[in-house]
Amino acid sequence: MPTRGVVYVHSTPLAVCSHVEWAIARVLAAPVNLHWTAQPVDPGARRAECGWTGRSGTGAELAAALRQWPMIRFEVTEEPSAGADGERFMHVPGRGLFRAAVGAAGDIQLGEDRLRSIMASVRPEALAHALDKAMGTAWDAELEPYRYAGDGAPVTLLTRVG
Fold first, then answer.
1. 44, 50, 40, 52: which is closest to 9 by C-alpha?
2. Tens of pLDDT along 98-117?
3. Which residues pair with 92 in a beta bridge?
């Protein structure tokens, strides 16, 4: 069952733009030509986004391909599909990659076992910090200014071949 998602490259050096396109093209087995615009939050950097369709798991493959360049900021989303949760990946330089399951509305979902583990392993006063970490709050906070910079930017739609 096919699914879809979005790749947001929030910030990348100009010299890496073509490499990002090639990495996405390798995963989707289709040519990619993104519309790059200036990233006002990071002078000299570029940003682009593209919607994609493909089989379940494509989001993880895209995130793995893009994390080759530790200097780029990106997000990859994958919508839930038959038998598979949705996923959200966020990458921030110095923080690395964050992955979470997401529901139909795009909210991060923490399973019962994960919550029980967090509650059992931390002092009550540290619970808020542990939950923030499990929900990727620090990644979200660092990416937020970059997201606003993309409002109204062009979007490219891509389909995975095969």
1. 50
2. 999 998 888 889 988 988 98
3. 96
Cα of first residue to Cα of last residue in the chain, in angstroms, is 12
In the chain, where the domains are located: 2-159
Residue carrying structure tokens 């002092």: 123
Report how far residue 150's alpha carbon sits from residue 98's, in angstroms, rounded to the nearest whole number.
Answer: 21
Per DSSP, 35 falls in state -
Q: Which residues of the chain have pLDDT under 70?
A: 150-162
What is the C-alpha separation between 65 and 84, in angstroms, rounded? Answer: 21
Angle between helices 127-134 and 112-121 in degrees, nearest 10: 140
The separation between CA 98 and the C-alpha centre of its own chain, rounded to angstroms, equals 8
Question: What's the length of the chain?
Answer: 162
C-beta neighbour count of 4 within 10 angstroms: 18
- Please report which residue ranges of the chain form alpha helices under DSSP H: 17-28, 58-66, 112-121, 127-134, 137-149
User: Which residues, 6 or more positions from 127, have their beta carbon under 8 angstroms from its beta carbon?
Assistant: 118, 119
Say whether 101 sits in a helix, a strand or coil. Answer: strand
User: For the whole model, what pTM was predicted?
Assistant: 0.83
- Sequence-ordered list of residues with C-beta below 8 angstroms from that of 49, at least 6 positions apart, any chain: 6, 7, 8, 9, 34, 150, 153, 155, 156
Per the CB < 8 A criterion, the answer to whether 47 and 149 are in contact is yes
